[in-house]
TrEMBL record:
Keywords for the protein's UniProt record, in alphabetical order: Aspartyl protease, Cell membrane, Hydrolase, Lipoprotein, Membrane, Protease, Transmembrane, Transmembrane helix
GO cellular component terms given for this protein: plasma membrane
EC numbers on record: 3.4.23.36
Reaction equations catalysed: Release of signal peptides from bacterial membrane prolipoproteins. Hydrolyzes -Xaa-Yaa-Zaa-|-(S,diacylglyceryl)Cys-, in which Xaa is hydrophobic (preferably Leu), and Yaa (Ala or Ser) and Zaa (Gly or Ala) have small, neutral side chains
Enzyme class: hydrolase
Protein name, UniProt field: Lipoprotein signal peptidase
């Protein structure tokens, strides 16, 4: 496969996924080396660095199970990653929003699955709150997945709008 072949499709966006994994894992290694479990480092009146372990999925879904969820979420992450790489290969270079979203989601999935395989849990540490309200702690991989999903939704909305405009429908 030549450079021109790579440029013809979205496989170059695997590099975005790799960048997300590097940023995610570097931040988590810093947390593991410097922040005790459940310790709060206040950054802003609404934001702390708080190291917590997530044995489940988003918002600690299934975290109270016997451990089977580790392998279940690992399998899902590998399946989604394979699917994203396939879609990247099939998506033309001009479909930038889709490719950015695939790269972000891919990097986030691999970042979190790396934790599951290495530790048996995902390292979360970004904690936003206001008075008694607390958003569940998350990490760089989670941000990448969320941003990638938002880009996919935006892309779908804009594509639908463009399709309507091209057909002359208001």
């Amino acid at each position: 496969m030549s450079f021109k072949d790579l440029k013809a499709n979205g496989l170059w966006f695997i590099a975005l996924g790799v960048l997300v994994v590097i940023l995610d894992q570097a931040s988590k290694l810093w947390i593991l080396a410097n922040v005790p479990l459940y310790y709060d480092i206040n950054i802003l009146p609404i934001f702390d660095i708080t190291y917590v372990r997530n044995y489940g999925a988003a918002f600690s879904f299934l975290s109270n199970q016997d451990g089977w969820q580790r392998w279940f979420f690992t399998a899902i992450a590998f399946g989604i990653s394979a699917l994203l790489i396939y879609w990247m290969a099939k998506t033309p270079w001009r479909e930038q929003r889709q490719l950015w979203s695939y790269g972000l989601i891919l990097g986030g999935a691999i970042g979190n699955v790396t934790d599951r395989l290495a530790y048996g849990y995902v390292v979360d540490f970004l904690h936003f709150y206001y008075e008694n309200w607390h958003f569940p702690a998350f990490n760089v991989a989670d941000m990448a997945i969320s941003c990638g999903a938002a880009l996919l939704i935006l892309d779908a909305i804009l594509e639908a709008k463009n399709e309507k405009l091209s057909k002359g429908i208001n």
